[in-house]
């Protein structure tokens, strides 16, 4: 007899699953329109605009037309719109415009896409300059006798929800990946002193390092150590115009104590020992430079300097910016720019502006110009020693600063309602599109 066949069911392929996720990235902005009565008579189709704000990787702005957006409304209504102020095509979003009841009764006037079903889905803005809003947002005669105006001002709040979609697949496993410790390993190599093949000489003091690490991190060191015009003796690098950290002779803490005792005798209690901060910054910059080259991060300044002072950190960042530019350490340069940006004050603004100009830090320069040109800051900054240094080292900046102050004054006038119209043909009541672009 033959062996009976065993029936087998067909092998099933494993089921795979994926999910499409769609959600909104929400953002909010509040726009106060002060001196409302002064905006009346601005003219049909002319507006005052908010500062731009970011939501969902796009830039937006609120536009308020005190005499209406279109001639057919006979200036009877105020118009209110949200505009896409950055480049973008077919940006899908939900919108909400709220005119705030400033009496505290909570009877706000709200037009919103949120919290309700939309027949045709989210609104689509085709390109930069497209708008959503209402030509006949509120009748002027009713508005001016309402609780929406308080102290001759209006308050508008908006909400923008940019629609984002992504697809997630099935995850059958999850293996955590350790955080990179490359900086830790190179830092340990520097501290151990093993394999060092180059010596820095700074003000008769020496520091050991590794040629390959220096060359990999800095194109300036790469050219100096391995380039066709390299020095004959590449085992020793002499650095000029940089102070040596004397904590290689004395302990760092002994140095701080000695200097502090000296200044405590020279200054009465409460005085600001600015020279101490300068000395400490010079003491630390060489060590910080090598620390960054190996660790790819700055050390804890409070731990290194023994004091928690914003002024000291700013001073160190100013010195390090010069060093970072000299050795083309772009990441260190940006870190210094960021810290100097955070530490801008009346006393530091002019010096930082000069450094930004000298070392081609355009973003930092723009921030400094904006800070210095403010009316409440300008006079005080001009009385600092840093401003004297700015005038001597970068005289061309004075002309640039003057132009910036003039532009700021023009912007102040336009914000009060005298800004020229940007959109020639506008959009319909449903906020379709405009042809001209935002500036």
Automatic annotation (TrEMBL):
Biological processes, Gene Ontology terms: cellular response to salt stress; protein ubiquitination
Gene field: BnaC09g38850D
Pfam annotation, one family: MATH_2
Every MATH domain range: 26-160
Domain BTB, residue spans: 196-250
Organism name: Brassica napus
Family: Belongs to the Tdpoz family.
Function: May act as a substrate-specific adapter of an E3 ubiquitin-protein ligase complex (CUL3-RBX1-BTB) which mediates the ubiquitination and subsequent proteasomal degradation of target proteins.
Pathway assignment: Protein modification; protein ubiquitination
Protein name: BnaC09g38850D protein
């Amino acid at each position: 007899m033959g062996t009976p066949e065993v029936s087998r069911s067909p092998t099933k392929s494993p089921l795979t699953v994926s999910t499409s996720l769609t959600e909104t990235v929400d953002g909010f902005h509040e726009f106060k329109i002060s001196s409302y009565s002064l905006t009346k008579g601005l003219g049909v189709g002319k507006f005052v605009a908010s500062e731009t704000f970011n939501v969902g990787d796009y830039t937006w702005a609120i536009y308020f037309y005190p005499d209406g957006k279109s001639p057919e409304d006979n200036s009877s209504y105020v118009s209110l719109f949200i505009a896409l102020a950055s480049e973008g095509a077919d940006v899908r979003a939900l919108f909400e415009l709220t005119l705030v009841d400033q009496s505290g009764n909570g009877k706000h006037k709200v037009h919103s896409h949120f919290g309700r079903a939309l027949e045709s889905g989210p609104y689509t803005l085709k390109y930069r300059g497209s708008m959503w809003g209402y030509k006949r947002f509120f009748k002027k005669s009713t508005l001016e006798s309402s609780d929406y105006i308080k102290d001759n001002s209006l308050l508008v709040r908006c909400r923008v929800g940019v629609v984002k979609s992504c697809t997630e697949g099935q995850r059958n496993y999850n293996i955590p990946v350790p955080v990179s410790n490359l900086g830790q390993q190179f830092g340990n190599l520097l501290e151990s002193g093993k394999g060092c093949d180059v010596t820095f000489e700074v003000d008769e003091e020496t520091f050991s390092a590794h040629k390959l690490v220096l060359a990999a991190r800095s194109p300036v060191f790469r050219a100096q150590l391995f380039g066709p015009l390299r020095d004959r003796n590449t085992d020793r690098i002499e650095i000029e115009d940089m102070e040596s950290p004397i904590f290689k002779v004395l302990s760092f803490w002994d140095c701080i104590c000695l200097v502090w005792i000296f200044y405590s005798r020279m200054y009465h209690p409460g005085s600001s020992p600015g020279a101490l901060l300068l000395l400490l910054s010079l003491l630390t910059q060489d060590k910080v430079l090598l620390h960054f080259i190996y660790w790819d991060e700055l050390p804890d300044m409070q731990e290194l300097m023994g004091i928690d002072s914003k002024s000291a950190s700013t001073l160190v960042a100013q010195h390090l910016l010069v060093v970072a530019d000299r050795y083309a350490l772009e990441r260190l340069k940006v870190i210094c720019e960021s810290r100097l940006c955070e530490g801008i004050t009346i006393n530091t603004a002019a010096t930082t502006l000069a450094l930004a100009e000298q070392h081609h830090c355009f973003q930092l320069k723009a921030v400094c110009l904006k800070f210095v040109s403010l009316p409440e800051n300008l006079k005080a900054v001009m009385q600092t020693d840093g401003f004297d240094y700015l005038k001597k080292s970068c005289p061309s900046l004075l002309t640039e600063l003057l132009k910036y102050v003039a532009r700021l004054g023009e912007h102040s006038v336009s914000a009060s309602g005298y800004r020229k119209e940007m959109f020639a043909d506008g959009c319909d009541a449903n906020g379709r599109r405009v042809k001209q672009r935002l500036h």
